[in-house]
Amino acid sequence: MDFTALRRDPDVGGADLAASDAADRLILDEASALLAASAPGTVAVIDDAYGALALGAVAAGAAEVRSHQDLVTGERATARNADRLDARVTSVAFGPGAVAGTRVVLMRLPRSLDRLAQTAALIAAHADPAVTVVAGGRIKHMTPTMNDVLGDVFGRVDVSRARQKSRVLFARSPDADAGAGALASWPRSERHDDLGLTVVAHGGVFAGTRIDVGTRLLLSVLGDALPDATSAVDLACGSGVVAAQLACSRPELRVVATDRSAAAVASARATVAANDVADRVRVVQADGLETLGAASQQLVVVNPPFHSDAALSTGIARHLFAEAARTLVPGGELWCVWNSHLRYRPVVETIVGPTRQIARNSKFTVTASVRRPSPA
Ligand SMILES: C[S@@+](CC[C@H](N)C(=O)[O-])C[C@H]1O[C@@H](n2cnc3c(N)ncnc32)[C@H](O)[C@@H]1O
Question: Label partner for 168 (CA 20 to 30 A): which of 4, 141, 298, 366?
Answer without folding.
Answer: 4
